[in-house]
């Protein structure tokens, strides 16, 4: 929505991408992961017009290494990831920071407090301290754009990589952003072979010393940065030091409590290294300091260290934050998202003020409305092939009877740990961890362990993090069953391509890399089939694999139903339909298997009529329910042909 000729409404991630464009980025890459995916997706839209290079990488460390090559050669580049990806990229980050970059290199990490779509709520700011690289954190979409633009230039000036940290609410929130000019790409890249960038042991210590010296220069710059801003009375004794969205929550809470004349707010955007002189200046005037930040008490810890070093000159200061237990949400101190209510609660207790985040009439209405809300569980999409895959695995393990179980990792298929996947996944951690766990389980036979273990992994995750586990399993003679749930796209994060796709993200034809070809090369026993086409065959395939020994590799391959629906030919629109005469409801004896157990969102139950029915608006026509109905009351119909016949 346009606000003016040069001012538009942008999502935080879109603003970051715009900042990269205005900062002269020649290259953008990353690995898709919520809440970061839209940054690279937006950069794809700039590619043709502005001549930049954009692509998805197989994982985060490769993305960072590829982006660094551009910086080595004098160009500017960005790489994006979510907080889990920072762990993957950190090995290279902690070494590339010891070299002198010729161009700018900015790593954008989007943390997920809460979390909403992650297996942890890690605070990535710690990596800036570990790698000794600058880190900035914006609090609005507009500032996110400006920080991104500035960081690319600053990184090139200092010759070191920088980090821009966002969080879910900022990445996916929207704000007005003023557009700036886009520079032309005029630099011809070249790598100086007279100045090799190597991390040989005898160079590490002097390079480390040089890096620390640079960081002192960075700190001097940060002390004067406009990204740090103080609002409130000049002589305030009570100061809130806030980072990122915490600054917005703090401002709102102070206004709601009418404490504007008593409290000053120091918004700190240059998180690492902290602007020490600026912070000390406000510590000198303050008697009380409250810290508002997500997720860990990162700033709180740094300020307290700084205070301890200068306590004799600063005088007595009382600190309130997560470490002191003054900032805590519903789940306790130091965890979860920050919000205005949490700040209100802290200030209310400190200032002995009664607080009410919501006027009583609205609160009463909210409580009444909550009674009407229907409980909803997270579920696989209509027609998702993973539903059939987990049904086949569940049935095969029950037939086997040896208390076998499934280990997996994060992705759409991670929902296999819940009711929609028949509660099959029993261990779920980081990407690729299921296959790694299976390697360990397979080596416990001599200790008396005899339960079958099935490791599931998605196609994109297999290329991201599963290859080392597969090679490890082959080399160490693991006895296990690995199942790749190949739905042709990186579905969970927005249908991005991966190495198994026949096209690159820019639409260029490429040779897909098939998981079974790689598994075959290390000697695994291979089975490939569609999990939905014949569910009984799928059950048999898993059961047969469980009876074998050695390294077994099964690929359940069927396109993501939601993604396929967008490209399906008009004459092939199939929908499942229930014959109300054949369906006999509760007396069937199936315990409402289709609507209660299979739990496809399109299959619903009419309590008054005691019959199941299918919502054809959402049905993707996969046909799984057709095969499983004991009354054969469900059939597939081509609604396009029906329309033409009518």
Task: Present the secondary structure layout.
Layout (H helix, E strand, L loop, with lengths): L1 E3 L2 E5 H11 L2 E6 L6 H14 L2 E4 L3 H13 L3 E7 H14 L8 E7 L13 H7 L3 E2 L4 H18 L3 E6 H5 L1 E5 L22 H23 L5 E3 L6 E5 L3 H11 L6 E5 L2 E3 L3 H10 L2 E5 L5 H12 L1 H4 L3 E3 L7 E2 L2 E2 L6 H12 L8 H13 L12 H16 L4 E4 L16 E4 L4 H9 L11 E6 H17 L4 E7 L28 H7 L3 E5 L5 H13 L3 E7 L3 H5 L8 E5 L14 H6 L4 E4 L4 E4 L9 H5 L5 E5 H7 L1
Summary keywords:
646 residues, alpha/beta, Rossmann fold, 4 domains, six-stranded parallel sheet, globular
Structure, explained:
This protein is an alpha/beta fold and 646 residues long. It has four domains: 2-223, Rossmann fold, CATH 3.40.50.970; 229-351, Rossmann fold, CATH 3.40.50; 385-565, Rossmann fold (3-Layer(aba) Sandwich), CATH 3.40.50.970; 571-645, 2-Layer Sandwich (Alpha-Beta Plaits). Helix content is 39%, strand content 19%. The protein has 23 helices and 27 strands. The chain has a seven-stranded mixed sheet with strand order 4-3-5-6-8-7-13, sandwiched between helices. Strands 19-18-20-21-23-22 form a six-stranded parallel sheet, sandwiched between helices. α2 (37-50) links the parallel β3 and β4 (53-56). α9 (246-256) crosses α13 (340-351). It is globular, with a radius of gyration of 28 Å. The model has no long low-confidence stretch (mean pLDDT 92).
